[in-house]
Amino acid sequence: MRLTCTVNGDRHEVDDVWEGESLLYVLRERMGLPGSKNACEQGECGSCTVYLDGVPVCACLVAAGQAQGREVGTVEGLAGPGELHPVQEAFLEAGAVQCGFCTPGLLVATDDLVRRSRAEGRRPADAEIREALAGNLCRCTGYEKILDAVRLAADRMAGEAR
Amino acid sequence: MSTPTRTPAGAPSSVGGPGGRIGDDAQRPDGVLKVRGEFAYASDLWMDDMLWGVTLRSPHPYARIRSVDVGPALAVPGVHAVLTSDDVPGEKVYGLELADQPVLALDVVRYQGEPVALVAADHPDTARRAAARIVVDYDVWEPVTDARAALGHPTWNQVHDAPAAVTELSRESAHLHPHGNLVRHLKVRKGDPEPTADVVVVGEYEVGMQDQAFLGPESGLAVPGEDGGVDLYVATQWLHVDQRQICSALAMPPEKVRLTLAGVGGAFGGREDLSMHVHACLLALHTGKPVKMSYNREESFFGHVHRHPATMRYEHGATRDGDLVYVKAEIFLDGGAYASSTPAVVGNAGTMGLGPYVVPNVHVDCYGAYTNNPPCGAMRGFGSVQTAFAYEAQMDALAAELGMDPVELRCRNAMELGSETPTGQVVDSPAPVAELLRRLVAMPLPPEPATGDDVDLRHMPGGVSNTTHGEGVRRGVGYAVAYKNVAFSEGFDDYSTARVRLEVVGGEAVATVHTAAAEVGQGLVTVEQQIARTELGVDAVVVHPKDTAVGSAGSSSASRQTYVTGGAVKAACEAVRGRVLERARGLVGRPAGDLRLDGGKVVSDLEGVALPLADVLGDDAVEETVEWRHRPTQALDPDTGQGFAHVQYAFSAHRAVVDVDTELGLVKVVEMACTQDVGKAINPQAVVGQIQGGTAQGLGLAVMEEILVRDGRVQNPSFTDYLIPTVLDMPPMRIEVLEYADPHAPYGLRGVGEAPNISSGPAVLAAIRQATGLPLRRVPVRPEHLTGT
Amino acid sequence: MRPFTYLSAPDVTTALRAIATEPGARLLAGGTNLVDLMRQDVERPTTVVDISTLPLDEVQELPAGGLRIGALVRNSRLAAHPAVRSRYPVLSQAVLSGASGQLRNMATVGGNLLQRTRCPYFADGTAACNKRDPGSGCAAIGGFHRGSAVLGTSEHCIATHPSDMAVALVALDAVVEVQSLRGTRRIPLAELHVLPGDTPDVETALDPDELVTAVELPALPVAASSRYRKVRDRASFAFALVSVAAAMEVADGTVTAARLALGGVAARPWRAHLAERALVGAPATEEDFRRAATAELATAVGRPQNAFKIELARRTVVATLHQLTTEGGAA
């Protein structure tokens, strides 16, 4: 089947998509966007977290056909070419990246959290950060530096104009 | 050749920012690519016209294969090849220490998930459907599933067809022998063989099978070469040991089997053994096309070895004053169907298994057995994790029996510089075991659990599940210490190779570091840059892709890479520096003994010389390749287990604070505190990251992680059923890093990665025991173990 | 995954026609369960009817004071809905205790109700499972069954229903609205899921041509004082060992109204009528709570690995009811 959707602001049209493919597979193998990761492909790890119409979901469980006409946002779309998004900068500075396989999904989940809190004019509390990121497994860091990174990003983004 | 992907190759990927020398929180050179989603992990590899390979695996833990019919699979449109063991041109078995594992099943399968056949097709789902159509006729046998039974069993020779039945458990001739069910029996004997003591505590302990649960699945891309060879891009821990085994299976010389490290999504020991390596090469060579293989999570659980489950019996004897008199221990490790690194794990469990304590009289028997359970091998902590649960539980039990404070008992018996280990080795570098503990005790404790109106449910056991409200919640505090050998032991020729080049590019001095040392997330690439910057006085350091075009670096395991490859990079830098300074001496025309490299210049403070490297090198590049070894170690005496077997020890200590809901059996780890001696923190931020991550894996094993195996079958091969800690399970941590230099190690550094993974879990168990008063002999602890229901 | 035909249904009638005419058709909503099971070759639809864009995603007030929740309302929206949070806090809590944020953003109310068991043998194509392959046997009974059911089991199946949301809904007297080409009918949620008996493969009272279109909650004053508790192996993102949904009113130390349901213990969200009967009119003491829970669990059958669930369920009931008497039900 033919799949048409918008990814990171660009319209993509892909032919010969097999019905059994997931949005994750289409992104990674058909659109050349392997940033979203395939750690479990069962919705149990969050490494494939992408925005679907602005809402974070596990791309591995979205059937390709369900992305028809939708807006998808991936880690590759967080910042422009040669730039870093404040959340990306914070993860680097805080040392929140080791193997980095969970990082793309965590960045999308963090971006969502920070944006939602900023819309409410506040910074997320620690307990809130933990709840928001509970769907993203990390095996390397023990999460401490990820929490540091989210706090850092929230501080910086709070200071920015919306 | 650069790694084949469709992501843009970021030019600055391998060059770090300015600064970032030894002791700095230098940032990862691969960090920007990783946060942009552009880092090429093995599962991201892609080439035009590539095929997808999949593996058909045995559904049975133990069976004879009567026949395999690949015809129906070959008939599926889109399928390019279906291969079985008949298609393996070289040696049909492989292994890290013993070649006993079939590349593809021969006549017998010995564990559930053993690879039987391969399919390559133009779409992964086509390949999977085709594999499902291969008809394998199995004669299913009763599996051997208990390590102790396997060794003493009437049919003990069943798994590996030993020539004759043997009933003696400690049969010397079976030591490291590929036949029979005994993989290795290590004996440690020291002091009085029949010691007596005032106070004796005996305990039996059991540790379940843990999975590395790295997030990046086993993946790689094999590309057939024009010379008839193959290029393999793969996520691994040791390129050269892979190459050796692949060459053997393919019957090809090393120059025809070229490996390049693809991005690794975590390893933790689970990538020491081959997974899809040979399979992808076979398919690529047969089809003449690039073949990608990438396991899904379920297959990953079957596709790599796990941490050995252990059953252990310990007897500790002490004087009334609390001095250890003797320890007797019997340790059984279930190695599963193939040897993998079981012999070395037995070596570690046996020699490290009493903890960092001085014990004058020792009697240890450690066994590694073959069974029809999943193969077990390397995982972070490597034999020390299992035994630490036992020896630290014993120390707490002994303290209780003596009426002593458990920390005091540990400090009283703690190893220190100059102590003799149970294997008769004198500790010849700092061993601040007591200080690590005392520093933990000095740290403030977290506030007592809230009650009544102050309760924030998110901080209670059960967390967001609204489970506990402070009723029935008991707090416990527990301590544990880790003791782990760093680098390879027992006489292994442990070395690493580094090639360092210094040149001037576009007016800027640039160093290039080329090693085959696997970057698995730990940050070795950062350390390589920091060392080169420090030794060569340049800012720009390119980390060359890791491949087999340079000599072996050894494995990214055993907490050894910063030590051994770090040592090699340092030595290669020194060699380069020597040659550059020699040239500079010629230019300045005097024997300037104080010349050094700094800021891209040759500098002499005495004489005020500052010669730009461009003037010294011109268009030349100075390159040196160095093979670097740590001090040699020795094999253990086969009768007594005595000898200089280990080059260095790592020590860490944990304090765990837990709240336990004794009604509902829920554990909330409130805080983890850790102290560790790292000799010299090359990258303090990365050191802390290792401590935090290792702590999480230890906590996971303590309270939730276990591969459940019944009748040789894995019951929970998914992240739905194999649970690892989430951010809600991990408490805040307090960390103190000590830096007592090891005079024998480069920069005085000490391996970091494994120790915190060893001490964390036993500290959690100690805290839960203190909170509940329960003996808790089995790990992981489940709610039903705490409720008594 | 096997090949199938993908049909995105533009309207309810198209969807109903597809499932009425195609025996191998399956409905796809949030995808969190079906896509996974198709990948594991457990679900093998010939046609997948994507209903995710149908206009069934409203939460509406009912004239009599209840709520009508469209079958395609996403879990995260349901949990956050102000009316749900204030009038049925147990439902909001139950939904939030399930899965992860990402999955709750995808999963729908209808899909959550109809999700399949998480018994590992159901997903393991090489194991015996009467639910997946009728007549093949039950590997859980002689195998690994720590997570299995203790109530309403049969010798053919001991699987549990995994939903948290459904446990709250069944306690709240929810009614499921179902449509087919033949018309619309309403099924009390307590009757939607059926116990395994001799036919564990039959999991619901739905006919193959029926589509869940909505769930209705009646006006239920007692629900304002309600709580959900879930006991599991990890602090989040894990299925329940045992869970309890409870609503209770107490006047002068006596229970005047009670709604109670258990999760993680049976093939359906287990409405605890026996316990409710024992509670109403009895003093609101821990001793009476325990007696009520014991009455409900009298018929429970534990097996070697899961017998602990019976006492754990009892304690969780007591703790939840005790909490309602001391703290009320505000979220």
Query: How large is the count of helical segments of chain A?
Result: 5
Sheet with the most strands of chain C?
5 strands, antiparallel
Predict the CATH topology of the largest domain in chain C. Uridine Diphospho-n-acetylenolpyruvylglucosamine Reductase, domain 3
Largest inter-chain contact set: A-B, 58 and 66 residues
- Average per-residue pLDDT of chain A, rounded, comes to 96
How many distinct domains of chain C?
A: 2
Category from helices, strands and their pairing of chain C? alpha+beta
User: What is the N-to-C succession of helices and strands of chain C?
Assistant: EHEHEEEHHHHHHHHEEEEEEEHHH
Name the beta content range of chain C: 15-25%
Give the structure's gist in a few sentences.
Chain C: This is Xanthine dehydrogenase YagS FAD-binding subunit. Chain A is of the alpha+beta class.
What can you see in these coordinates?
- The complex is a heterotrimer of chains A (162), B (789) and C (331).
- Chain A has helices at residues 23-30, 86-94, 103-119, 126-132, 144-158, and strands spanning 3-7, 10-14, 49-52, 55-58, 71-73.
- By secondary structure, chain A is an alpha+beta fold.
- Chain A has two domains: 3-77, Ubiquitin-like (UB roll) (Roll), CATH 3.10.20.30; 86-158, [2Fe-2S]-binding domain (DNA polymerase, domain 1).
- In chain A, a hairpin with a 2-residue loop joins β1 and β2.
- Chain A is globular and about 45 Å long.
- The mean pLDDT of chain A is 96.
- Chain B is of the alpha+beta class.
- Among the domains of chain B are: 51-142 and 217-264 and 271-303, Aldehyde oxidase/xanthine dehydrogenase, a/b hammerhead (Aldehyde Oxidoreductase, domain 3); 433-484 and 648-787, Aldehyde Oxidoreductase, domain 4, CATH 3.30.365.10; 495-629, Aldehyde oxidase/xanthine dehydrogenase, molybdopterin binding domain (Aldehyde Oxidoreductase, domain 4, 2-Layer Sandwich).
- Chain B contains 17 helices and 33 strands.
- In chain B, α10 packs antiparallel against α11 (433-442), α12 (524-536) runs parallel beside α13 and α15 packs across α16 (755-772).
- Residues 8-16, 153-158 and 161-178 of chain B have low confidence and may be disordered.
- With 331 residues, chain C is an alpha+beta fold.
- Chain C has two domains: 1-52, 2-Layer Sandwich (Uridine Diphospho-n-acetylenolpyruvylglucosamine Reductase, domain 2), CATH 3.30.43; 56-331, 2-Layer Sandwich (Uridine Diphospho-n-acetylenolpyruvylglucosamine Reductase, domain 3), CATH 3.30.465.10.
- Chain C has a five-stranded antiparallel β-sheet. Chain C has a four-stranded antiparallel β-sheet with strand order 9-10-11-12, sandwiched between helices. A three-stranded parallel β-sheet of chain C has the order 1-3-2, covered by helices on one side.
- The longest helix of chain C is centred in the last third of the chain and has 20 residues, at 308-327.
- The model of chain C has no long low-confidence stretch (mean pLDDT 97).
- The chains are: A alpha+beta (162), B alpha+beta (789), C alpha+beta (331).
- Chains A and B meet through α2, α3, α4 and α5 of A and α1 and α15 of B.
- Chain C: One of its GO terms (molecular function) is FAD binding.
- Chain C: This is Xanthine dehydrogenase YagS FAD-binding subunit.
- Chain C: Residues 1-222 form the FAD-binding PCMH-type domain.
- Chain C: Keywords: Oxidoreductase.
- Chain B: It holds the Pfam family MoCoBD_2.
- Chain B: Residues 36-142 form the Aldehyde oxidase/xanthine dehydrogenase a/b hammerhead domain.
